[in-house]
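Hi support team,

I submitted a single chain yesterday and got back a structure, but I'm not sure I'm reading the token output correctly. Could someone confirm the output below corresponds to the sequence I sent? I've pasted both exactly as they appear in my results page.

Thanks,
R.
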Amino acid sequence: MCSLHFHFQMQIQSDFRSALQIASSTFRPFSLPRRLVFSNSTTRPRAFSNNAIVPDKPSICTADELHYVSLPNSDWRLALWRYHPPPQAPPRNHPLLLLSGVGTNAIGYDLSPGSSFARYMSGQGFDTWILEVRGAGLSVQASNFKEIKETADAVSEQMEAVASSVTNGVSPPLQQPTNASGSLPESGISFLGEDSVGIPRAWDESKLVTKLTEIFMRLSERLSGFLSDGQSRLISAKLFDQISKLLEDSQLSERFEEVRAKLSNLLEKQQNYGIANQIRDLSQRLVNIIEEGQRSVSPQFIDMHERLSSTIEDFQKQLDLIVKYDWDFDHYLEEDVPAAMEYIRAQTKTKDGKLLAVGHSMGGILLYAMLSRCGFEGKEPRLKAVVTLASSLDYTSSNSTLKLLLPLADPAQALNVPVVPLGTLLAAAYPLSSQPPYVLAWLNNLISADDMMHPDLLKKLVLNNFCTIPAKLILQLTTAFRERGLCDRSGKFFYKDHLHKGNVPVLAIAGDQDLICPPEAVEETVKLFAENLVTYKVFGEPQGPHYAHYDLVGGRLAVEQVYPCIVQFLCQYD
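Hi R., thanks for writing in. Yes, this is the structure output for that exact sequence:
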């Protein structure tokens, strides 16, 4: 049994790393309609439609209403799916907020009319809302209602197109590469000296100087806070190493190393006008070195200009991805969830201003982190009761398959893979997991236990529920596998340490065959609460049925076993 488990883990690791390598070299974000940057100076979230309702919802949205809430000082507009209780439902005192897992959208809570946790809860009288955090589902970057509508429709059409292509037997390809060489994988870069139509690219010294200067200036600014000092050194060293290879074993190598040392020193200093000029001067000197090499008769300098230009373009696109996907777990905790909660309170006007909340996977982790932070600060979380599904702040005691993400905790590895296009990867892998010879069948076991989810619903979940994950987010989440568990971005605040200070009742639910968040991981967090505040429940029986990670939300028996348990708990505190 142990050898089989080891083989299973090794197979997953091999497939996962191969997928990440493909992702690092071929991913390009889906191109959406043009977006205008909007900065809202107020801290109160606003919606961009009459009564905060989007008429003519995108077809992918199956809620009763689709709302949008803005974030302060951001152009993100978060989608909120709303489900109204029917007239015959029992009246409730508090609205219900649902939070999804990492890299997932609202669809997991509403797979079909007969397998919809959101519909079930609204049918029990709860005014139910699903939040899609930034980067997930129908949440968009836009400044006005027209842009919100256009962008959301485009996202919806893309999601449906992916599902349609797989249904018709066409495996959806990964996004086309941004260029011939990709994004600086470990093995190095392949270069092209010609453009796509075979015409040699012109050598434009001024453009290269400008590009180099821009890259180095962005590095000196730490990429808008994405990079720590150490990570900034790593990524600048990566570019220098690639250029150094072009000059390897040449008499110009020594001169390049001198320029490299000076540039590296400047990147460590606070940016100011003088440093900006020095960086540009050194960039000019660097290009001059390449120019001199180009005039050399040595074979190694043939097409030097084109190869340098290709290196710079590749590196620029790598930086663009890092900056575009510039958020982490704390952004969700400190900005997205509070904005959604305030908006829901304003819409529902509860007497005590409190909400009920259910979080699956990372959604539950967010709720734990909120309770911890409020306990530490002595603040009221404004939550009446909380339910977590397959969530933990500390995975060290478990054999979770999420440990496969630990290589991304290495900053160099994370910078090779600035994003993980989880949705694209799973859609591409789906035919191999669901059809003979089932070479990726283990993927299904991560999502659902045998015979627990209808094949059509599993297919919908895989093809429509997953999104792209920033490496910055993964980097923070991997701290849950270290001593003391998940911590904030500073590395100084550990969320486990203050859970005992809370006063909000918690129901923590685990699945007996959950490979992502095993019961022992859930229990690791449960034991930190006061006994009178926490209830712990594991679903699944020794002889079956069994519950994997998503069965707690969308499994065929969840509506009979899990949902009523949640309703009973919430009603005690409503």
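A quick pointer for reading it: The first strand starts at residue 65 and ends at 70. Let us know if anything else looks off.

Best,
Support desk
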